[in-house]
């Protein structure tokens, strides 16, 4: 049954909210009766304080704020002290998190979020914006180990806004085996696969672009000791390719991170690569796709896997000091292309240096050989 506030109150609220954020406006008009549309918003000079107060807090919190996503709810909190107070309700942010990332409803994740300073609101502020930590620098050679004893991964894969895969996994980060082994987190056993409703009816070339556009991945890493989190996936794919050996389609979601910062070193910058591999099986309606691999790995500029200790140092810095920015949809791919160009230039410089050293060794060897031959020739002639 629609709410029946006074027309003046409705007009005043519509005026104030539409000036700052349209999602609030859209949520409000959904619960209002049709007559409100015939009223013109009042001028800013009108005394609207009493009218705003007249709209009960339960109406705002139950029928309006619950319709907002996280970004709009953040905007609502900055509109006034009253909205700030109402939008701090943890149930609102819990709904936002569970809607955006279904994996966060897992008991282990909920337990970790409950220890955050403002619970789900703090978690959302850590996870929602795009992570930018290219400028961070880590001392990867220090002997002190990270205080984190566990790393929780909450992963969700969507295809055209439909959930395909959701899983929570945790790994111990203090064991010698983890610290000394290449860092890699796999969520699906190699013998298993996850069926999906995706059917390929296009050519491979067109289908790769289709997956880049419609398959989105969220990989949230949570540090339950320091109460920090970050989404290390680029959300939108940075590249998709066909693996000719296995026949699978591999889609990659990479976030570029700062490494040790030493110019020319392999760890100057690193990539946190989230990879989704999809296999195919022929059906009557087309090629049925299934998810065969969901993994995360840390790679240096030479494509080598970083060890667990180095990876945890970098991930810890990213969660602690990484910038959260509102990036556009295509910016993740652009940053990855810049990183690949940087890798290409580094590889070219390395090849030139190696070629120069090879030539130097060859000329040095020829000079030594010529010297020996000259010496023996001199001895032969002198006798």
UniProtKB/TrEMBL annotation:
<keyword id="KW-0472">Membrane</keyword>
<dbReference type="InterPro" id="IPR036047">
    <property type="entry name" value="F-box-like_dom_sf"/>
</dbReference>
<keyword id="KW-1133">Transmembrane helix</keyword>
<dbReference type="InterPro" id="IPR001810">
    <property type="entry name" value="F-box_dom"/>
</dbReference>
<keyword id="KW-0812">Transmembrane</keyword>
<dbReference type="Pfam" id="PF12937">
    <property type="entry name" value="F-box-like"/>
</dbReference>
<protein>
    <submittedName>
        <fullName>Probable F-box protein At2g36090</fullName>
    </submittedName>
</protein>
<feature type="domain" description="F-box">
    <location>
        <begin position="62"/>
        <end position="97"/>
    </location>
</feature>
<feature type="transmembrane region" description="Helical">
    <location>
        <begin position="356"/>
        <end position="381"/>
    </location>
</feature>
<dbReference type="InterPro" id="IPR045283">
    <property type="entry name" value="AT3G44326-like"/>
</dbReference>
């Amino acid at each position: 049954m629609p709410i029946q506030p006074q027309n003046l109150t409705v007009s005043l609220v519509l005026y104030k909210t539409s000036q700052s954020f349209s999602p609030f406006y859209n949520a409000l008009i959904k619960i209002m009766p049709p007559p409100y549309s015939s009223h013109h918003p009042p001028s800013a000079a009108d005394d609207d304080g009493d009218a705003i107060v007249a709209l009960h807090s339960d109406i705002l919190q139950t029928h309006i704020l619950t319709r907002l996503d996280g970004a709009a709810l953040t905007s609502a909190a900055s509109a006034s002290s009253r909205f700030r107070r109402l939008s701090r309700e943890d149930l609102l942010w819990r709904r936002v998190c569970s809607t955006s990332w279904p994996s966060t409803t897992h008991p282990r994740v909920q337990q970790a979020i409950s220890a955050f300073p403002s619970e789900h609101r703090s978690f959302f502020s850590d996870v929602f914006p795009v992570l930018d930590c290219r400028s961070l620098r880590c001392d990867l050679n220090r002997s002190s180990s990270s205080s984190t004893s566990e790393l929780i991964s909450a992963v969700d894969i969507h295809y055209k806004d439909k959930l395909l895969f959701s899983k929570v996994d945790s790994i111990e980060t203090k064991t010698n085996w983890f610290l000394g082994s290449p860092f890699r987190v796999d969520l699906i056993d190699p013998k298993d696969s996850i069926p999906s409703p995706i059917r390929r009816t296009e050519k491979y070339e067109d289908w790769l672009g289709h997956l880049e556009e419609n398959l989105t991945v969220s990989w949230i890493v949570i540090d339950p000791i320091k109460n920090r989190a970050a989404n290390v996936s680029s959300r939108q794919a940075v590249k998709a390719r066909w693996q000719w050996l296995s026949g699978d389609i591999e889609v990659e979601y990479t976030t570029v991170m700062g490494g040790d910062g030493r110019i020319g070193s392999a760890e100057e910058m690193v990539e946190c690569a989230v990879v989704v591999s999809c296999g195919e099986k022929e059906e009557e309606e087309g090629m049925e796709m299934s998810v065969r691999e969901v993994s995360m790995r840390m790679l240096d500029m030479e494509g080598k896997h970083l060890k667990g200790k180095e990876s945890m140092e970098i991930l810890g810095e990213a969660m602690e000091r990484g910038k959260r920015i509102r990036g556009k949809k295509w910016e993740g791919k652009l940053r990855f292309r810049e990183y690949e160009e940087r890798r290409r230039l580094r590889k070219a410089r390395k090849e030139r240096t190696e070629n120069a050293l090879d030539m130097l060794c060859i000329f040095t060897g020829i000079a030594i050989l010529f010297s020996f031959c000259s010496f023996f020739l001199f001895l032969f002639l002198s006798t």
